[in-house]
Amino acid sequence: MQFKRLLSLVLALALSAAGLGVLSACDAASRCVLEAENAVILPEYGEERAEVVRANSRSENITSGGKYVGSLYAGSSVTWFFTAQRSARCEIRVALANAQPNSAAFAFGEGKAFSLAINGTAVRVPAMEIAEGTQYSDYWQEISLGTYAVSAGINMVVLTALADTALVNVDYMAVLSSDGEIAEHTHYWKNTQEPATCTEAGYTYKTCDECGYSYESSPILPLGHQYGDYHYDGELGQMVAVCERCGDKRTANKPDSKYFGEVFFAEGEFTTRPDEYIYEAEQAYVCIDGGLNNGTSYIKVDDGSSNDPSGGKLVENISKIGNYIRFELEPEQPCVADLVFRMSNVLYSEEGIAELNPMSDYVYCTIDGEEVDFSYVAFPGFDEHSYFEWRYVVIKDVALSAHSVIEIGPKEGGGRVTMPNTDVLKIYTDGVRVDTVLHYDINDVSVGAYTGGYAYALDFAAGSTFTLYAGTSAARADYVLTVEADAAVSDAALLPEISVNGGTVNPGGIELEKGVNTIVLHGVPLRELRNEVAFSAAEGVRLVAVQAYTPASVPRAYDSAIVPAYDYLKNREEGAEGFAVPDLILEAEEADLGDSVSSREGVELIEVHIFENTGKPASNNSAIGNFAVPGNTITWRFTCEEAADADIVFMLASAYFDAEVGGNVATRDLQDKIRVEVNGVAVRLDELVLEVDSPANYYAWKAVTVSGCPLRAGENVLSIEALAYGAPNMDVVYIYKT
After folding, report:
1. Best exposed site among 19, 25, 145, 315 by fewest CB in 10 Å?
2. In which region does residue 669 sit, left (phi positive, over 0), alpha (psi from -120 to 50) or beta (all else)?
C-alpha cells in the first residue's frame, strides 16, 4: 500500500511537469478558489441530477471545503461566477478526480469527457489524462485548463460533462491573475414561476438580482384536467364534462333510458321551466319498513346545523332496503316538467364523507314506473363530517300524467348509510299548475268532546312541546288536545301544524270555534318513555293541554337522578358519618346475564380483580364491563315478604371510549345507550350524565337512583338492556327501603 501511494505521488509530480499540478496553496492576492458545491449545479432535479457529496472521513486525500460535486453525467454542468477588477488574462485551474467505476485512467480534452465555456464562448480544452482513481474517487488533481481573457466585472465559467463513460468529480475551480484582484461573485436569488397547465409542465426559476443569471431550479408537474360533472348538451346530443381549469371538454354517450339525472352544486348552474312548485320531502309518503339507520325518526327538524333546509325539515336515516320516499303529483293537465331534488351526501368514512359515485350504485328512482339513470350523478367527498352540503339532482323533460308518482330510495349498500338526505322536490312547468299530494301519518282526526270510550288518561307536561314519559307502550291511544282560539278558524292553511312523535296530523276537516276546542287524534300509538306533541305557532291559536287515553292502565315512567349519598361503597371506604346502609345488595356479576357477550374480542364480560388491575374500587372487586352489544341484558330477581316502597340504586360508570380523546369521556344521552326497567316499568334516564374524572378511569361509579319504587310482595325483577355503543359498566344494585 505504501508503494502504491509512493507511485501515485511520483505520477502526480510527472503530470505537474506536463502542465498539471496537484492541489497546492497559492498567493491569495492572485488566486481565487471557487468551491464546486457553491456553484450553480445543473440539473438540480431528476434522476440524472448532479449531486453535492460530503468527503469520506476515511480518505487519505483532502477535499477542499469538505465537499465536492459528483454524478456529473452527460449534460450535467457546474457554473462558477467571479468578478475581475479589470480585463485581464487569467489561468483557469480545476480540481478533478477520477470517478470511473473501475478507476482506470482516461484521456480528456479535445472534445472528450467535458467541455468548457467562458462568458458564453466555448474554449478549447487541451488533450490531457485523468490519473487512476482511488477507492473514494477523491484523488484530486489541480489541472490547468489554460489561460483565457476575462472581462472587468462578472465572469462565468461553465464545465459541462459530455459522456457517461468518462466521469469526473469536481472539487473547486481556481482563477489565477497577475493583473488585478479576483473575487467570488455572491448571488442574490429570487424565485419566479412559470405555472403549469393541465397538459404542460411549469417551472420554478432562480434569478440573481445582481448579475441577472437565471436557471430552471425545479419543474412543476402538469396539473392534469379537472373535469366537472357530465351534463347533457342538446346540440351535440351527448354528455359533456368541462375542465374547470382550461375549458377542455370530453364527451360521453347519454344514457339509453327515457330519464336520466344530472347533478349541480348550485341552483344558478342550471336552467328549468319557469313555474316552480315545492314538494317538501317530509310531506311526501316516507316508507320505513326497512327500519331506520339511527334514532327514532326519519324527519330531522333543523337546529341550526342542517344548512337551511327548505321548510326547516328534511328526511334522513332511510338507507335500509325497503325504505323509500314517494312523491305524488297531480297537474291540472298532462304536461312536461323538470324535476329537481335537493339532496346531500351522507356516505360515512373514517376520513370524513366518502365520495358517492355514481349515485346509480346506491340509489334508485322511478317516475311512473320508468327507471331514472343516475350513472352521471356523483356527490363529492369531504374531509370532515358535514352531512348537509346540498346538491341539486336535475331530471329534465319529464312527462307528467294526471296522477304521477315519483319514488326514490336506497339500493343495497352493504349496511352503510348511502341514501342521501332529501330536503325537497321542486317541479318546474310551462304554466301548468301542479298540486302535490301531501302525506299525513295521522288521518283519523275529529273535533268535539271526546267520546272514544278509553277510560285511562295520562296528562302531558306543558312546555315548548307537550311531553309524556310512559312506563310502558300502548298499541293504540287517543290523544285529546285542548285548543284555545281567539277567533273562529275554518281555513286549514291557517291552522298550526300538529305532530305526534314526529308523525304529521292531517288538518283537513278541522274547524275551530272561538274559545275552547277539543281535537281528538284517534288510534295513535303511545311509546314507552318519551312521547311528544308539537304544535307550531299560529296567530290566535294556542295548545293548552294534552291527554292520552288508553284502553288499559299505563304507568308513568320512573324518574331517576344521581344521588351521591347512596354510593354505599364510597361512603363506607371514606368513613362518612351516618351514611345509609342498603337493605339488599345485588351484584351485577351474580345476575342473570342471559346470552350476553363481551363487546371486545378476547376480553371477558365479567371483570374481576378490578382494584388489583386498575386501582379503582368495585363492589366485590368485580363488575360487568364491555357490555355495549345491543341486546345484552342483566336481570336481577329478588323477593319481598310484603309490598314496600324503596329507592333502587344502579351503580353505573361511563365506558364511552372517544378516539379523539384517546380514552373514556362522559356518557350523555344515556337513554339511547341502555334501557332500565323496574318490574316492567321503564326508567327515564335522558337527563343524566355519567361524568368521568380521567380518560383512563372506566370505574367512576355513579349512584343512578330510582326513588320511591313500589316493590311487590313476592318476586321483583330489575333489568338493564344494552341499546348501543357507549352502554356503561355496571357494578351493583343497592336497595334501600323507604
Report:
1. 25
2. left
Q: How many other CB atoms sit within 10 Å of the CB of residue 99?
A: 20
Spatial distance between the Cα atoms of 635 and 667, rounded to a whole number of angstroms: 22
Query: What are the strands, taking DSSP E only, across 551-594?
Result: 561-562, 584-587
Q: Are residues 121 and 263 in the same domain?
A: no
Do 412 and 429 fall within a single domain? yes
Contact at 8 Å (CB) between 418 and 362?
yes
Q: Decide: 76 and 161 in contact? Cβ < 8 Å.
A: yes
Pairing of strands 370-373, 259-264: parallel
591: cell is: 345476575
- pLDDT of the residue at 412: 82
Q: d(Cα 429, Cα 397) in Å, to the nearest integer? A: 10
The last residue of one of the domains, among 395, 410, 436, is: 436
The residue out of 550, 580, 604 marking a domain boundary is: 550
Q: What are the backbone dihedrals phi and psi of residue 10, each rounded to the nearest 5 degrees, phi first?
A: -60, -45
Please name the residue that has the C-alpha cell 334514532: 295
User: Strands 285-288 and 352-353: what pairing?
Assistant: unpaired
Please provide the average confidence, as pLDDT, over all residues in the chain: 92
pTM above threshold 0.85: no
Sign of CA dihedral 664, 667, 672, 676: positive
Same domain, 349 and 336: yes
| pLDDT tens digits, one per residue of 654-704 | 999 999 999 999 999 999 999 999 999 999 999 999 999 999 999 999 999
Please tell me what DSSP assigns to residue 509: T
Whether residue 655 contacts residue 727, with contact meaning beta carbons closer than 8 Å, is answered with yes
Residue 293 — pLDDT band, cuts 50, 70, 90?
Answer: confident
Report the domain count for the chain: 6
The CATH number of whichever domain residue 720 belongs to comes to 2.60.120.260
Rounded Cα–Cα distance for residues 222 and 577 (Å): 78
The answer on 449 and 431 residing in a single domain is no
Residue 556 lies in a domain: no
Q: Are residues 599 and 465 in the same domain?
A: no
| Chain position carrying cell 481573457 | 149
Contact 718, 558 (CB under 8 A): no
- Grid cell in block for residue 256: 339509453
Cα–Cα dist 463/482, whole Å: 14
- For residue 312, is it left (φ>0), alpha (ψ between -120 and 50) or beta? left
The CA distance from 93 to 591, in Å, is: 94
* Domain housing 493: 445-550
Q: Is residue 411 part of a domain?
A: yes
What is d(CA 316, CA 85) in angstroms, rounded to the nearest whole number? Answer: 81
Claim to verify: residue 69 and residue 163 sit in the same structural domain:
yes
In a domain, 555, yes or no: no
Sequential DSSP letters for 98-111? E--TT---EEEBTT
Closest by CA position to 724, among listed 288, 291, 295, 386: 295
Spatial CA neighbour of 588 closest among 569, 564, 605: 605
Measure the CA dihedral 603/606/609/612, to 10°: 50
194 and 176 within one domain: no
355 inside domain: yes
Residue count (the chain): 738
* 455 burial type by CB count under 10 A (0-12 exposed, 13-18 middle, 19+ buried): exposed
Query: Do 459 and 598 belong to one domain?
Result: no
229-236, long-range: CB < 8 A, 24+ apart = 229/262, 229/263, 229/264, 229/376, 229/377, 229/378, 230/262, 230/376, 231/262, 231/264, 231/270, 232/260, 232/262, 232/396
Residue 214 pLDDT level (bands cut at 50, 70, 90): very high
Place of cell 465555456: 117
Neighbour count for residue 124 (Cβ, 10 Å): 12
